[in-house]
């Protein structure tokens, strides 16, 4: 079966959904594909509550991203038994988690995404193909001619070829970039290559990539026993103590990401926490449902999302390795998360002096349809680092890093890009690395609120391929700031809008960027039609996060 469309978006994470919506709103036909059963990526199938900037309620993300957040809140207001105070809160936070002003169930985010896409499915300008991944990318010179898809969900393979004038790669690992032969980078560049203050000395390390994490959800039923079967790899993970870590990985002791100071960070700080407390503990940090948000009796316990240093997988990367090795690492990451749960249920020191929390109940029913995983695991692993294009512009630490800009004698504030297509804000946050010769701990450094340059979305050679997610031309270092939810959405929206704009004007992407009048016209489209924001107010741009 062959399909033809105006814009093909491969990968249905946040970047892919935003790209599809932008192209659809600008009148184009779109085919959107996704490897997993769910659209939404890190917000849904990977189950990560949004990490967002401090101004997100009013500024710092596209209008469409704020609409997504509003849709999520409205679903709770319309269908859940909220307390009067929660119902009246403009910034409703169902989980009352500390990581974000909007912590919520992945399934509710999925419902909001479906609602936003529904009109375009109804008028048949959007085709969504879940459970598919790119098998082959056909290239004609410096352009992608077609992407051939294969099924991933157990169906008989249907060799579907999709042809489109513009192809956007919004996959988690840069699959189209890799299979097209577009110039790309994986892992950590060397300091000699990028000049970055926090880049690795010596040669580049392609397999030095941020840890990925298989998240899971839990509630807590005191007096009950929900202990899972002892995982096959439990003995290994219980005793595993990385050289860069203060002790065993399965422990309440870890490090502060910014200073690497050793700390003890328990699950609970007091017995009331599982039913709506506010202790500074692991339980409340990524809590996705708080019992105190809802009317009494609706929830017997909070529900929290486990995305912690203890289940960051550091024994091997996902990008740049063969299918068998990738699968081995995926299986091992599942075993790590299952082992963390089993350790918490059976051996972890308790806040009251005992050992083990057998009442920790897996809530995989909130993270997947059909039969939930018995350990509460998400559908997909949380991927922090992708294959990245070699772009017309590469964002380096000197563009956004506070310390790097100071060392270079540059004024406070992030680099101003004339070709800005969006803004974002997050610390340069690199989790422990996988697959390098010597695994290393966090690199977590201050940066300024930044812009997204159009040149970082454009491969240096391929004419109709546009990066639309974490695969833009950042470095290993700056990827740590550009990888989170609202920034990925911003990138995707700009990519989808660019494809639609190029079809409307007949200009190729590089010409849009190269011609000042054409660039200004495209930027007006972004701000005037789509509600994008291209620059921070000066007082925020020069601030430090």
TrEMBL record:
GO terms for biological process: NAD+ biosynthetic process. GO terms for molecular function: L-aspartate oxidase activity. This is FAD-dependent oxidoreductase. The lineage of its organism: Bacteria, Bacillati, Actinomycetota, Actinomycetes, Jiangellales. InterPro entries: FAD/NAD-bd_sf, NadB. It comes from Jiangella aurantiaca.
């Amino acid at each position: 079966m062959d399909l033809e469309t105006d814009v093909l978006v491969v990968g249905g994470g946040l970047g892919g959904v935003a790209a599809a919506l932008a192209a659809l709103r600008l009148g184009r036909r779109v085919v959107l594909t996704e490897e997993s059963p769910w659209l939404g990526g890190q917000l849904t199938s990977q189950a990560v509550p949004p990490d967002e900037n401090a101004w997100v309620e009013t500024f710092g993300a596209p209008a469409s991203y704020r609409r997504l957040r509003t849709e999520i809140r409205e679903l709770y207001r319309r269908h859940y038994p909220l307390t009067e105070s929660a119902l009246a809160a403009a910034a409703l936070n169902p989980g009352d988690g500390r990581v974000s002003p909007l912590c919520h169930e992945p399934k509710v985010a999925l419902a909001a995404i479906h609602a936003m896409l529904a009109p375009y499915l109804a008028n048949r300008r959007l085709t969504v193909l879940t459970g598919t991944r790119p098998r082959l990318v056909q290239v004609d010179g410096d352009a992608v001619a077609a992407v051939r898809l294969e099924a991933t969900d157990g169906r008989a393979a249907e060799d579907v070829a999709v042809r489109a004038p513009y192809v956007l790669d919004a996959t988690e690992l840069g699959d189209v970039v890799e299979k097209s032969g577009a110039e790309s980078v994986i892992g950590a560049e060397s300091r000699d290559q990028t000049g970055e203050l926090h880049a690795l000395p010596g040669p580049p390390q392609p397999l030095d990539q941020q840890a990925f994490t298989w998240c899971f959800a839990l509630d807590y039923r005191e007096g009950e026993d929900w202990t899972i079967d002892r995982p096959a790899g439990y003995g290994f993970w219980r005793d595993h103590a990385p050289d860069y870590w203060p002790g065993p990985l399965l422990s309440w002791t870890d490090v502060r990401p910014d200073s690497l100071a050793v700390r003890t960070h328990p699950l609970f700080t007091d017995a009331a926490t599982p039913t709506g407390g506010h202790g500074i503990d692991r339980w409340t940090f990524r809590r996705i449902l708080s019992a105190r948000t809802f009317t009494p009796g609706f929830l017997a316990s909070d529900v929290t999302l486990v995305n912690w240093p203890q289940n960051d997988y550091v024994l091997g990367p996902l990008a740049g390795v063969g299918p068998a090795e990738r699968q081995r690492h995926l299986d091992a990451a599942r075993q790590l998360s299952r082992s963390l749960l089993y350790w918490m249920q059976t051996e972890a020191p308790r806040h009251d002096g005992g050992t083990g929390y057998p009442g920790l109940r897996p809530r995989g029913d909130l993270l997947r349809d059909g039969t939930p995983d018995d350990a509460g695991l998400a559908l997909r692993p949380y991927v922090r680092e992708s294959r990245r294009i070699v772009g017309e512009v590469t964002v380096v630490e000197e563009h956004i890093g506070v310390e790097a800009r100071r060392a270079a004698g540059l004024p406070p504030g992030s680099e101003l890009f004339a070709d800005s297509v969006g803004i974002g804000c997050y610390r340069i946050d690199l989790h422990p690395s996988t697959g390098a010769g010597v695994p290393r701990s966090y690199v977590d450094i201050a940066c300024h609120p930044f812009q997204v340059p159009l040149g970082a979305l454009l491969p240096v050679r391929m004419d109709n391929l546009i990066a639309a997610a974490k695969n833009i031309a950042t470095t290993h270092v700056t990827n740590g700031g550009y990888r989170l939810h609202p920034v990925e959405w911003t990138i995707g929206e700009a990519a989808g809008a660019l494809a639609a704009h190029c079809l409307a004007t007949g200009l190729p992407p590089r010409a849009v960027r190269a011609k000042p009048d054409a660039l200004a016209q495209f930027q007006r489209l972004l701000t005037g039609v789509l509600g994008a924001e291209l620059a921070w107010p000066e007082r925020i741009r020069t601030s430090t996060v």
